[in-house]
Amino acid sequence: MKQNISKKMTAMLAPNIMWLLRRIGKVAASRGYKAYIVGGLVRDIIRGVKNLDLDIVVEGDAIKLGEELAKELKVKLVVHRMFGTCTIALKNKLKIDFATARKERYEHPATLPVVQYSSLEDDLSRRDFTVNAMAASISEDDFGQLTDMFAGLQDLSDGIIRIMHDKSFIDDPTRIFRAVRFESRPGFSIEAKTLQLAKEAIRDGLLTKLSKYRIKNEFSLILKEPGCKKALSRLDEIGAGIIQPFKI
After folding, report:
1. Where does the chain hold its CATH 3.30.460.10 domain(s)?
2. Would the pLDDT of 158 be above 70?
3. Mean pLDDT to the nearest integer, 87-106
4. What is the average per-residue pLDDT within 180-206?
5. Domain made up of 6-150: CATH architecture
6. Per-residue pLDDT, 77
């Protein structure tokens, strides 16, 4: 069943943010593109939790869209052409991240992916967990229309952290830390198969393939969570507590 979250967006986002999203959608449409808010922002709008991570996926050229908007808004633009992404730095210290819809291929475990531009479905399918694999349109004709191809809405309702596919932790072992970090928040638990796959990835030594910088970054994010003690306990339980991220 189709669901529209425009009312929830209006309730959770400031008027200036809503104006920006509608403007982005309008400029995207003028170029023949479709634009969506994705990931954690959509998840938290549905949950009724404040989140200012403004991530936009574009079925089209995200960099060209970002360039046009930065010029119109007279703000700074940072471009990463290798990944088809860019960031607008707003005057009120907010930022908007734009990414061209893409799919990814991991040539080796724990390495950065090879990127190929693609569709919204491919872009959502490359994400870490089902609850982060939802998108909402910001185009004029269907503003707020939810795209949920992987039952993320049901998992969100049930408080379940579930990876997208069985090789997810092999492709990117940092997702183990992310799963534990999300689980530390009230109302969430890691789904049984996902937890088992995390343990297997740790047992197979995949965390040791990560750089110390990436591990330190994930631990730093965990320590910022109110439930960090719960997260650290879970890491010990599944065998990840032996990592020493701060000895760099």
Report:
1. 6-150
2. yes
3. 86
4. 96
5. 2-Layer Sandwich (3.30)
6. 94
Tokens of 168: 């997810």
Compute the CA torsion angle 83, 243, 196, 49 (nearest 10 deg): -60
Q: How confident is the model at residue 246 (pLDDT cuts 50, 70, 90)?
A: very low
Considering the chain, what is the average pLDDT of its residues?
Answer: 91
Residue 127 scores a pLDDT above 90: yes
Measure the CA angle with vertex 158, ends 153 and 164; round to 5°: 55
Cite the residue boundaries of each domain of the chain with CATH code 1.10.110.30. Answer: 159-238
Buried b (16+ CB within 10 A) or exposed e, 9-35: beebbeeebbebbeebbebbbeeebbb
Look at residue 111 and tell me whether its pLDDT is greater than 90: no
DSSP result, the chain: ---B-HHHHHHHS-HHHHHHHHHHHHHHHHTT-EEEEETHHHHHHHHT-----EEEEEES-HHHHHHHHHHHHT-EEEEEGGGTEEEEE-TTS-EEEEEE-EEEE-SSTTSPPEEEE--HHHHHHTSSBGGG--EEE-SGGGTTBEE-SS-HHHHHHHTEE-BSSTTHHHH-THHHHHHHHHHTSTT-EE-HHHHHHHHHHHHTTGGGGS-HHHHHHHHHHHHTSTTHHHHHHHHHHHT-TT--TT--
* Confidence (pLDDT) at 231: 95
CATH topology of domain 159-238: Hydrophobic Seed Protein (1.10.110)
